[in-house]
Design brief:
alpha+beta, 2 domains, 10-stranded mixed β-sheet, 12 helices, 10 strands
C-alpha cells in the first residue's frame, strides 16, 4: 500500500507539492509564533541574568523596577549594604525611551549604573568591543542590536554621550536593546525637568500669590527649577554573600527597611506571569487558529485527491483489496503531505527568524512537538476522505 500511495502522489505530484508548500508556510508561521514566545521568555531571563543580582529591592507594594514604576532614596543602598549577608548593593535606574543619533532614533531601555569597577550589579557583564564606562558623565555602553558603533554620539534628553563599549544580548523584557550610562546622568534624564517645564513652573509660582510667601516648602525648587527627587533611583540590586540564605537576607531587608524585596524566582514570575501573560495568550490563540486552518487545508486536499480516484478505489475493492489497505493508503498520503509541509515550514522558520525585529528562539523540543501535532492533525484530517473511500461500491468500477 506504500507503493500505491507513492504512485498516486506521483500521478498528481503538482497539486501535492504546491499544497505541501502552502501548508509548510502555515507551519512555518506556527513555529515562528512559538519561537516568538520562547524569545520573549528568554529576553526576560537575559535581563535578570545580566543584572547580576540575587535580590531586587524596590518601593514598597510595587512590582518594580521592570513591571511598575518604583522610587527609592538614592542613599538607601548604604543601609541595605549594612544588612548581614549583603555582599554588594548598587543603585540602578531604568528608563525606556527614544535614544537619538543624528536624524534617527531607536527605542531602548536606558540603564543608569553606579560608579565603580565592572562586576557591580547592574553593569553589563561582558563586552564584545571597547571598554566599560570610566567617567562620571557622558559615556555610554550600548547593545549591538541598537546599530550603534564605537565612537558614535547618542542623544538622551538634552545631553550627548559617546559610545565607548558594545555588548550583546542586553535587552529589556520587551526586547528593547539596552544603553548603559552613568547613574547621575540617568537620574537627570528620568527626574529632572526640561527648560520649558522649568520656565512654566517659574511663571506659575510668580502668578500664584499663595506661593509668594516665605517659608513655603518647595518654593526654592519651584523657582530655581531643581527637584529634590532627582536623587531617586528605581531599585537597589543586591548580591548576597556565599553561605548566606537569600531568603533570610531578603526577610531582614523587608523587616528593617520596610521595603519590597524580590528574589530571582519571584522576579521571573513577575516578568513571565504579568508582563508576558497577555502576549502569551494572544500567541496561543493564533496557534489554535493556525492549527484549524492547517487541518482544513489537509482535509480539503486529501478529500480532493480521494474524489479524483473514486473509480480506482472501486477497482481495488473489486480486485479484493481490504478496506484497511485503502484507509492506510489515504492515511499515508495525508501523513506524507504533513511531513512535506513540516520540512518546508521548519526551513522557512529557520531562515526567517533572524529578520524579525523580536528575538525568535527555535528550540528542538518545540520542533518535535510541532511534528507530532502535524501528524495528529493530518491523521484526523484524513478521516473524512477515508470514510468516503470506504463507502465506494465496487460495482462503480464496471459502471
Amino acid at each position: 500500500m506504500i507503493s500505491l500511495a507513492g504512485r498516486d502522489i506521483l500521478h498528481s505530484w503538482g497539486k501535492f507539492v504546491f499544497t505541501g508548500f502552502g501548508l509548510g508556510l502555515l507551519i512555518g508561521v506556527t513555529l515562528t509564533m512559538a519561537g516568538l514566545y520562547r524569545g520573549m521568555v528568554d529576553d526576560g531571563m537575559a535581563l535578570l541574568d545580566n543584572s547580576g543580582a540575587d535580590l531586587w529591592v524596590v518601593q514598597r507594594d510595587t512590582l518594580g523596577p521592570y513591571a511598575e514604576p518604583s522610587g527609592l532614596p538614592g542613599d538607601l543602598w548604604r543601609d541595605i549594604r549594612s544588612v548581614p549577608g549583603v555582599a554588594e548593593a548598587a543603585n540602578v535606574t531604568y528608563l525606556t525611551m527614544q535614544v537619538g543619533q543624528g536624524e534617527r532614533d531607536i527605542r531602548a531601555m536606558v540603564a543608569g549604573v553606579t560608579a565603580g569597577d565592572p562586576g557591580i550589579p547592574g553593569w553589563p557583564p561582558r563586552l564584545v568591543a571597547g571598554r566599560q564606562i570610566t567617567r562620571g558623565h557622558y559615556e555610554a555602553v550600548a547593545d549591538m542590536s541598537t546599530g550603534f558603533a564605537l565612537g558614535d554620539t547618542l542623544r538622551i534628553r538634552r545631553n550627548h554621550y559617546t559610545v565607548v563599549g558594545l555588548t550583546r544580548r542586553m535587552v529589556s523584557s520587551n526586547g528593547d536593546p539596552m544603553v548603559f550610562i552613568p547613574l547621575r546622568d540617568a537620574q537627570e534624564a528620568q527626574f529632572l525637568k526640561d527648560n520649558d517645564a522649568i520656565l512654566m513652573q517659574r511663571r506659575r509660582a510668580e502668578a500664584d500669590p499663595s506661593l509668594n510667601r516665605p517659608g513655603i516648602p518647595g518654593l526654592l525648587e519651584a523657582v530655581l527649577g531643581t527637584q529634590t527627587n532627582n536623587e531617586n533611583v528605581n531599585a537597589v540590586l543586591v548580591r548576597v554573600h556565599p553561605g548566606f540564605a537569600i531568603q533570610d537576607v531578603a526577610e531582614n531587608i523587608r523587616r528593617w527597611q520596610r521595603l519590597t524585596v524580590y528574589d530571582r524566582a519571584q522576579m521571573e514570575s513577575i516578568l513571565i506571569g504579568k508582563l508576558i501573560a497577555t502576549a502569551a495568550k494572544q500567541i496561543g490563540m493564533f496557534l489554535v487558529i493556525l492549527a484549524f486552518v492547517s487541518a482544513a487545508i489537509v482535509a480539503f486536499i486529501i478529500y480532493t485527491l480521494t474524489m479524483d480516484k473514486i473509480r480506482e478505489i472501486a477497482v481495488l475493492k473489486l480486485l479484493g483489496a481490504r478496506n484497511r489497505a485503502i484507509a492506510a493508503m489515504i492515511l499515508q498520503q495525508s501523513l506524507l503531505l504533513g511531513l512535506l509541509g513540516f520540512v518546508v515550514g521548519k526551513i522557512a522558520a529557520t531562515f526567517a527568524a533572524p529578520f524579525f525585529p523580536r528575538f525568535i528562539l527555535l528550540i528542538p523540543a518545540d520542533s518535535l512537538r510541532g511534528l507530532l501535532a502535524v501528524g495528529v492533525i493530518c491523521a484526523l484530517a484524513s478521516l473524512v476522505a477515508i470514510r468516503i473511500a470506504l463507502k465506494v461500491d465496487p460495482a462503480e468500477a464496471i459502471g
